[in-house]
Design goal:
Length: about 270
């Protein structure tokens, strides 16, 4: 596929993770990539780090791009819709990564039919993200392939037909890296308290979590079975898991995910 002209409305953390993924694939250059952000400092940081064009004008991004990625916070969407509504041409594609905001709202607010909603995560910055996405009916197979091509640069991508799953993905994989970091941080504290050096623990923890994730993806067993298979009765793993059970860690995680899901709904109402 030829280099696509891709524009970003909002050049914050998630936009940068995507830019970093595109950069690793050699898909960035000043001609084709335009990023708008209100902050002079933010624009400077991005322009210093990546070959791209920055601007304070969202309209300039729309005028120059075939695919426009909406990467503002839900609470900053209203002014963007007011500014850009009706300024698209029918051949352009919009990809929104904004948590909680429905395709219908974007179609109505922007006056464009070809809208994709995607939920990536911050691991895109090393090409190891995962993105769930859904495209509006108006996209042709060829246009969907274009969207898939862009999202596949961030890591594995998965399309769904059920828009509700996007809100669930926000709470599971969108916020998920932070849960994994929290778990790893806890392992790190425990390892250090037992006397292990930070550098050794970092490697052991990072690789254990990353390898476990890979095994979950590659194995034909479900996750519970994988856990049972490494837990011999009366062994060390069983001793640790017994404490997790006594402390109802599963219950706490379920509550945490429900809280993230609820918060994503609340934030979408601010949009
Ligand atoms: N971070 C994640 O892990 C993650 C994962 C999946 C999806 N998302 C979604 O990605 C979106 C962006 O999240 P983020 O974490 O990247 O937030 P962020 O770092 O705050 O980035 C948003 C950027 O948009 C800029 N902005 C604000 N108003 C604007 C406007 N009217 N026009 C153009 N740019 C504007 C902000 O500038 P100021 O800071 O100056 O306001 C900021 O630089 C959110 O909707 C979020 O739901 C995030």
């Amino acid at each position: 596929m030829d280099k696509l002209k891709i524009g970003f409305i909002g050049g914050g953390n998630m936009a940068e993770a995507i830019l970093s993924a595109l950069s690793r694939k050699g898909a960035l250059d000043k001609e084709n990539i335009t990023v708008s952000d209100p902050s002079d400092m933010r624009r400077q940081i991005l322009a210093d780090k990546y070959p791209l064009t920055t601007t304070a004008s969202n309209l300039e991004v729309v005028e120059k791009s075939e695919v426009i990625i909406l990467a503002v916070k839900p609470q900053n969407l209203s002014p963007v819709l007011a500014e850009l509504g009706g300024r698209f041409n029918p051949s352009q594609l919009v990809i929104s990564i904004i948590a909680g905001v429905k395709i219908r709202k974007l179609v109505e607010g922007l006056g464009i039919d070809k809208v994709t909603r995607a939920m990536p995560n911050i691991l895109a910055q090393i090409g190891q993200g995962v993105t769930l996405w859904i495209a509006s009916q108006a996209l042709s197979q060829e246009e969907k392939a274009k969207v898939r091509y862009i999202l596949s640069m961030l890591g594995p991508e998965l399309a769904t037909e059920n828009e509700e799953e996007l809100d669930i993905a926000t709470a599971i994989s969108g916020s998920g890296p932070a849960y994994a970091f929290f778990f790893m941080e806890s392992l790190m504290e425990a390892a250090k308290a037992l006397g292990m050096s930070e550098s050794t623990a970092k490697m052991l923890i990072g690789q254990t979590l990353s390898g476990s994730g890979q095994l979950v993806i590659e194995s034909s067993y479900d996750i519970g079975e994988l856990r049972r298979r490494v837990t011999s009765p009366g062994g060390t793993t069983a001793a640790a898991l017994k404490v997790f059970e006594e402390e109802n860690i599963k219950g706490a995680i379920k509550k945490a995910i429900e809280a993230a899901f609820k918060r994503s709904k609340e934030l979408s109402e601010l949009a």
